[in-house]
Amino acid sequence: MKLRRVLAILTLAGLSVLLPKYALAWDPATTHAGLTAQALAASRFNSTLVHQLDRALGSLEPLRLDMTVLDADTARSLRFRLEVLDPGGGYRPSADGIATASAWVQAGAVLAKTPPELGRHHFFEPRTGIGLDDGPGLSGAVHAVRLTLDDGATVRDSATGLAFDLEGMPALDWIGSSRNDLGLLAFFDNWVLAVSAPQRNQRETALARALLALGGSLAVLEDVGQPAFVRNDFRQEFLTEDAGSSLERFVSDRYGSVSLPRARTAVSRPNLKSYFVAADGKGLAQTTQRRFFSPGTLPKDIRVVPGQVSSELTDAANGSLRFPEPKVGILDLRQSGRTRYVAHDGERVLAYQRNADRVHFFIDRVVYEDMARRWLPEVEGYAAGLVDHLLRAKLQIVVAESSAQVTFTSATTSADSVAQLHLFSEDETGMRTEFATKTVQGDVPLSFSVPKGTRKVAAYVRGQDGAGAYVAAAEARVQ
């Protein structure tokens, strides 16, 4: 019955072919997991867990996500998504819900595109701020029909938006959207609960979920380091071949999840938005778009006319480009059939061949190799910088006898920065109770009397500063 209904729709649409399967780069199970692992290693992630949250093993700290403390719908959805993770990836939790802190972040990066159509919200064209928009191509309804046949989605799924319709929310909006259960709101909410929830299993579950959301947020940023995602090039990148993106397959096959080039350094940016797009042109989306071509935004083939000067050929190639950069330089057309390359700063970004009187432009494995080797460490650096940005606010708790001194600091804290500090006392059973709140202003230390029988003091601050939203949480044992 389903097939007959689909064929009827195709007949009405006047179409004789179906679109091939798609996959969204970077590959979640390998490349996203690897990029995220490298980003964590280059960031202050381990130090924050050790010195702020009293997790002695830092990124290797085992954390258990207890499904029984979640509501039924959340637990059911999360359990299903975790169960489909690759057991060989090193980030799937054990049968009893335990994984290391870094594995939870990697798992979040993978789950950000599980199911893969969630990746439609990872596109971002920095000049206009729009997300995935396939207006010039076939209608989203037709692509949804393709999903009906290939992936088991129903026509009703297509009508209600459950199937992929070739449109998406801009990445910068998606990362902060309440619809995104692995976005920044989920990170902030659960980071607070990781120190404030009453019971120990609730706190550990919240920390695991915060780390999942951290990974999901990193995946959104990492994807704007892929040229097609910032050049609105879904159709040519992902639908031309049945196996999806050639770039995705190359990076996944060449490096897997553990052999990616290392990040050089964490990139520091003034606020969240500037990691994507900024007035100085140094957002990752801007840099990616300016530096690389994608399959659907190549120069069109040009015809060589006898007596034509090189500059005319270059002008013809550049005149066909959808984006102002990168540009084609002087072309070497002396030998027909030989592959040559357009390079910028020693990096090959475009291949071309002259065959008779035509010049054809394309992207090959040599271009992919240069891109992966030199560009992926920079993408990791942006992701590492985002980790440090989100964890920039710090709380220091010093407990002596029956008194606790708390100092709040942030890289952008000023004398007029005001936020509410919440303090909690943990008893010998592991139960935590809030015992004080106070307004913090600047980095002035505050002193509090600790309730009798306290084994641990915890605190959090959540607010806004000159760099945007922040959260700080800390724990300290009573000696």
Fold and architecture overview:
With 479 residues, the chain is an alpha+beta fold. It has 3 domains: 254 residues, no CATH class; 62 residues, no CATH class; 84 residues, SOR catalytic domain (Immunoglobulin-like). Helix content is 37%, strand content 18%. It contains 16 helices and 13 strands. It has a 4-stranded antiparallel β-sheet with strand order 3-6-5-4. Strands 10-9-12-13 form a 4-stranded antiparallel β-sheet, with helices on one face. A 3-stranded antiparallel β-sheet has the order 7-8-11, with no helix packed on it. Strand 12 and strand 13 form a beta hairpin. Helix 1 packs antiparallel against helix 6, helix 2 crosses helix 10 and helix 9 runs antiparallel to helix 10. The protein is elongated and about 95 Å long. The termini are far apart. The N terminus is likely disordered.
